[in-house]
Amino acid sequence: MALPTTPDLPASPATAGTPGTDTASPDTVIAGHRQRIDDLDARIIALIGERMTVSGQIQATRIGSGGRRVHLAREMEILRTYGEALGKPGTAVAMTLLELCRGRV
Questions:
Q1: How far is CA 18 from CA 3, 31, 34, 44, 78, in A?
Q2: Contact 79, 95 (CB under 8 A)
Q3: Are 4 and 16 in contact (CB under 8 A)?
Q4: What is the pTM of this model?
Q5: Please, are residues 18 and 33 in contact by the beta-carbon 8 Å criterion?
Q6: Among 17, 36, 69, 97, which residue's beta carbon has the most beta carbons within 10 A?
């Protein structure tokens, strides 16, 4: 009895466009993944820069209207969001983001 065959499926998003997912050497596969990480890191850094800009605009508006630079309840909300999404390391990431964004006005 012949086994049923499955149609060829497209590469998953995790491997799509990754060199050597079928036949390349491990070094080539690793190099492809490292390039993807470098690309992601560049995007993350750009997003952090954008976040810093928006945070500065909020701080300037708040200070201009007689408020304080830092809104502690909002910071706690951000810490909670990152902690719930990423666990304890997420809280550390949020703390770093908040530190980067404070006092830029």
A1: 30, 9, 10, 20, 34
A2: yes
A3: no
A4: 0.72
A5: yes
A6: 97
Q: Which amino acid is at 58?
A: I
- Dihedral, CA atoms, 76, 60, 42, 91, nearest 10 degrees? -10
Of the candidates 13, 18, 42, 14, the one whose C-alpha atom is nearest the C-alpha of residue 32 is: 18
Structure tokens at 90: 């997420």
Q: Give residue-wise pLDDT tens across range 25-59.
A: 999 999 999 999 999 999 999 999 999 999 999 99
Taking every pair of C-alpha atoms in the chain, what is the biggest distance, in angstroms? 81
Q: Which tokens is 74 given?
A: 């909002």
In contact, 62 and 69? CB cutoff 8 Å: yes
Residue 59 near residue 100 (C-beta atoms within 8 A):
no
- Kindly tell me the sign of the dihedral angle through the C-alpha atoms of 38, 40, 44, 49: positive
